[in-house]
Amino acid sequence: MEFEPVIGFETHVELAAKSKVFCDTRAEFGGEPNSYVCEVCLGLPGTLPVLNKTSMELSLKVALALNCDIPEVTEFDRKNYYYPDLPKNYQISQEYRPLGRNGAMTILMPGGREKTVGIHNIHLEEDAGKLVHDVYKGRGVSLVDLNRASTSLLEIVSQPDMRSPEEAEAFMETMRSLLRYLEVSDCKMQEGSLRFELNVSMRPKGQKEFGTKVEVKNVGSVRAVLRALDYEMRRQTEILEDGGRVIQETRLWDDERGETRSMRVKEGAKDYRYFPEPDLPPVHIDREYLETLRKDLPELRDAKRKRFVEEYGLPDYDAGVLAAEKAVADFFEECTRLHNAPKVYSNWIMVYILRELGGEDEKEIADLKITPEHLAQLAQILDSGKINQNIAKKVLNKSLQTGDLPEKIIQEKGLEMVSDSGEIEKFVDEVIVEQAGPVEEYKNGKDNTLNFLVGQVMRKSRGKAQPDTVQELLRKKIRGEQP
Amino acid sequence: MSITADEVRHIALLSRLELSDDEVELYTGHLAEVLKYVEKLKELDVDDVEPTSHAIPMFNVMREDEVMPSLPQEDALENAPDRADPYFRVPKTTE
Fold first, then answer.
1. In Å, how far is B26's CA from the nearest CA of chain A?
2. Closest A-chain CA to B89
3. d(CA A84, CA A95)
4. By residue range, what is the domain housing residue A469?
């Protein structure tokens, strides 16, 4: 029997507010443990939360970009549970009146197929602190750092609309791109500011009803999610093929071992006893304000990709690569503004610059020593014919390493094309003498040999001659014409 | 609607309360009384009434996103029953 997966995600994103969601303490990654805390986020008696306006605004931007229904009134609720990562013994979240429902996000599959994934709801809540497990006097202990406790966390709950690992991957990439375009978060998965919680079930292909789903937590990268998904698909399929039943549970991903394992929860079934948070008054979402936010939404990835194809004549694939990150897309457009050579930039960025940035989360384009000014200057020099493609690539790599402007590199290294035809002619003459054999072959009609001879001249000129000019000269000289 | 002793034990566990068997019996009776009163309230027709989540008609109480100084680390940790500087120390949370 063939099984297919049913996949959904809870996306957790830490919002880029400077202070925490319900108090004015610094919200920042890192920092000495327990140095970004105050009476409110420590849950001391008698303190009251006050909502951060920016957290709400960033959340609404996401809800708008994901085409959610946004209610007139949104409210907060208490989710009750005892765990030392939140000292109040409840988490302020949104259960009954979340700020967004019934949204949708379009993902693009390889080959150009588009698919819409439903968004069940979006809600704003406070993040939890961090626990480090340790041993003290022979017993296991947990060490608590509350710097992250009560920072703004937005949870985006998707519908279980995905049916393959490819769709799951496209979902994560599209979501990350969207959140970064909106500039609501830095989305650094390694630092935990973007986390995907996977839920997956298997069912016989063709069956309408869903199977029993399993939630997988503790997955720290897109790659890890895909590995965990692959593992769960195999594990659940095996159980079903043996006639067994999958248990509904939360499992933890162990990245080292490459497996998920059951997370035994002492408390038994989830019993959060949600009730309205009495300390936070409801929020009326003004329609005019919402319209202002909507108008200010940036152009998102897909729109940008389509525009790049139309405006700059780029292939769809290239446009998609450039548009994946807003910073990269902006970099590209700044280059074209300075000097119009979109295809050259597109090639350089895809081949040399993105390689420099590495995979997810590593470097930002802004961290590089190279700027749009470098690329524009280089393209201008290339267009003027002073250097050729190969030299341009060398200069680009040098710029990437040193941050020097192309003009300076070309001058210092004497990379400008030899325009002195006398010098080129000298090289050509030398090659004709030295390579008598191949010259003879060319004369006898073996045209390909010419490329070899051009290469010899190029080598003598250390790459500074124009191949076209060299070819022309060689041809004429061998045929005995006057150049 | 009534409540069983097992349900009372479950609620006590969720609230991290340790109850003796006598207390379980006592509170089962108390909670049953409360629930009986709620049953009485259920006789009212409230179909057209919006559930009240807040007693005071106040909306949109928000603050600007400005950072104020944190509590000094020493103050933050001062009242902890157990600490391993700069952390709070608690019994192990995972198995």
1. 23
2. A143
3. 22
4. 421-479
